[in-house]
Structure formats: C-alpha cells, structure tokens
Amino acid sequence: MVLAELGGQIASALQKMSNVTIIDEKALNECLKEITRALLHSDVSFPLVREMQSNIKKIVNLEELAAGHNKRRIIEQAIFSELCKMLDPGKPAFSPKKAKPSVVMFVGLQGAGKTTTCTKYAYYHQKKGYKPALVCADTFRAGAFDQLKQNATKARIPFYGSYTESDPVKIAVEGVDTFKKENCDLIIVDTSGRHKQEATLFEEMRQVAEATKPDLVIFVMDSSIGQAAFDQAQAFKQSVAVGAVIITKMDGHAKGGGALSAVAATKSPVIFIGTGEHMDEFEVFDVKPFVSRLLG
Ligand code: GDP
C-alpha cells in the first residue's frame, strides 16, 4: 500500500469514529482494528502494530472521549505520537565533521540501491562543503566498480577501487588510507550486496568493518521489500554495528511501513530517503513531516 493510501484508510477509520455518538471500548476497538489492518497492509511488522495498538489504548482515555471532546483529534494525536515514537530510536546518528576524517560504510542487499545511495550521500555532503571520497569494496559483483566510478566521475568525487584485486578488505583498507592521506573528511566505503542474506556476505561485511573501523555503518533498504523489512534489518544489525538507515525508492510504489520496521530492528534512525535514480533525488528524513504525510 502506498503512503497516501495508508493515510486515506486511517483517515476513514477516524472519520467513522467521529460519527459515532457514544464511544465505548467496542467502538474504539473497531477503529483500532481498521487502523491495524491498514498498517499491516503497509508492511509495518505485526509485533510493532500490536505494540502500537496497546499503547494507543493506554493513551486514549475513554471517559475523556465520552465527555464530548474531539474524539477524532484525540485518537489521531495518539496515533501520530505513537508513529513518531516508533520512528525515533531516541539517539541521533553519528554525523561527520568537516576537516576531521570520518569513515562511513554502506551495507545492504544487492539491488537495494547501495551504490547509488553512496554517491548521493557523498554529493549531498560535498555541496555542504565536505571533502568526500568513494571506495568500492564490492569485489563480488562484476561491474560494481565501473558503476561507482561512473557515478563518482559525474559528481566529481574522488574514488578508489580495483579491477583485479579480489580481497574486499584489502581494497577497503587501501582506499581509506589513501583518502586519509589526501585529507578527505568523509570516506565512504561501498560493500558487496549479494542477493540473499548469506553467511559469506555477513562475514565479509564484518571483516571490512573490523579493518576500516567505520564511524558509522549505514544500512540501505529498498522500501518495496515489504514484510521482510524487519528480519532483514535485524540480520544486518546482528553482524555489524548499524547506526543509521537509508530507505530507497520512496518514489514509485513506496511503502511506509518498512521504515518503521527498519528503525525498530536496528534501533537506529532513518537519516535520508531516496526518491529517484538521480544524484539529487535524496532527502533528509524528518520524522514529523513523514508521519503527517503518512496520516494524510
Ligand atoms: P546496489 O546493488 O544496492 O548497489 O543497488 P544500485 O545502486 O545498483 O541500485 C539498483 C537500482 O535501483 C538502480 O537501477 C538504481 O538506479 C535504482 N535506485 C536506487 N535508488 C533509487 C531510488 O531512490 N529511486 C528509484 N526509483 N530507483 C533507485
């Protein structure tokens, strides 16, 4: 379900509620059931939806509702604050400082948009006055280095990689060292993806992280992966210290629920969203406007 649809369904459940004269537990449960259904359709994971439902019931005071306060508003506010709470893990992500070298490592499944997002992230910071550089430590996928090279060249960002070296750890370390010497303050390491969450992928990621000691590991997730979001994000978090999430492909048939699941699974905030294939189709993620849009 796309975001607008979810907003529409929640709005309709709330509308029904405000048309009822007496709000008792049954009416509230009916309303929450409809909202729950809408959230599940939007790929918010089942345990999260359950938790949210019980939290809303705790917040919403039935007596207050019966006293004729604006019922729709009270429930809407409870949903708003619950969704915001879910998207805010309570601690901000590491943010790179200018003129001080930071290493940021990108992880995610193949096709999630990792390589594209690395360049977007570099380009975004370059415009803010940073001196970024890109390292291609993906030796698994043929063409990965060419893709990064092409993107980097377009954005005039220095890059490092190899056509012949097969050890991703070696390339990552060499790349990071090279750019530290060149006084780059934001060294971005793109890692290999693979199609599935295989043990070798996680082992390789772990080794690259151990060797480059990143200040931040960003998990890149395709917004269209659906209910698998929670498990996938959790699997990555269990192997490397994921500290932030970027959700890609929020244009098109994007589902909002994946973002909530990824935050819950990694206990890390979403920092940007990808909204297209181009370099500048990249937005800072803000919880409140996102939830407002979600609720229509
Ligand atoms: P990787 O395998 O994770 O490195 O993924 P790529 O960066 O190669 O991206 C896979 C495909 O998704 C490419 O065709 C990208 O152009 C596309 N892509 C990446 N981010 C976005 C996005 O935010 N929106 C859209 N529509 N496409 C994207």
Automatic annotation (TrEMBL):
Function: Component of the signal recognition particle (SRP) complex, a ribonucleoprotein complex that mediates the cotranslational targeting of secretory and membrane proteins to the endoplasmic reticulum (ER). As part of the SRP complex, associates with the SRP receptor (SR) component SRPRA to target secretory proteins to the endoplasmic reticulum membrane. Binds to the signal sequence of presecretory proteins when they emerge from the ribosomes. Displays basal GTPase activity, and stimulates reciprocal GTPase activation of the SR subunit SRPRA.
Compartments where found: Cytoplasm; Endoplasmic reticulum
Catalysed reactions, as listed in the record: GTP + H2O = GDP + phosphate + H(+)
Domain notes: The NG domain, also named G domain, is a special guanosine triphosphatase (GTPase) domain, which binds GTP and forms a guanosine 5'-triphosphate (GTP)-dependent complex with a homologous NG domain in the SRP receptor subunit SRPRA. The two NG domains undergo cooperative rearrangements upon their assembly, which culminate in the reciprocal activation of the GTPase activity of one another. SRP receptor compaction upon binding with cargo-loaded SRP and GTPase rearrangement drive SRP-mediated cotranslational protein translocation into the ER.
Protein name: Signal recognition particle 54 kDa protein
Primary localisation category: cytoplasm
Organism: Brassica cretica (Mustard)
Family of this protein: Belongs to the GTP-binding SRP family. SRP54 subfamily.
High-level lineage: Eukaryota, Viridiplantae, Streptophyta, Embryophyta, Tracheophyta
Residues of the full protein shown: 1 to 296 of 496
Keywords: Cytoplasm, Endoplasmic reticulum, GTP-binding, Hydrolase, Nucleotide-binding, Ribonucleoprotein, RNA-binding, Signal recognition particle
Subunit structure: Component of a signal recognition particle (SRP) complex that consists of a 7SL RNA molecule of 300 nucleotides and six protein subunits: SRP72, SRP68, SRP54, SRP19, SRP14 and SRP9.
SRP54-type proteins GTP-binding domain span: 269-282
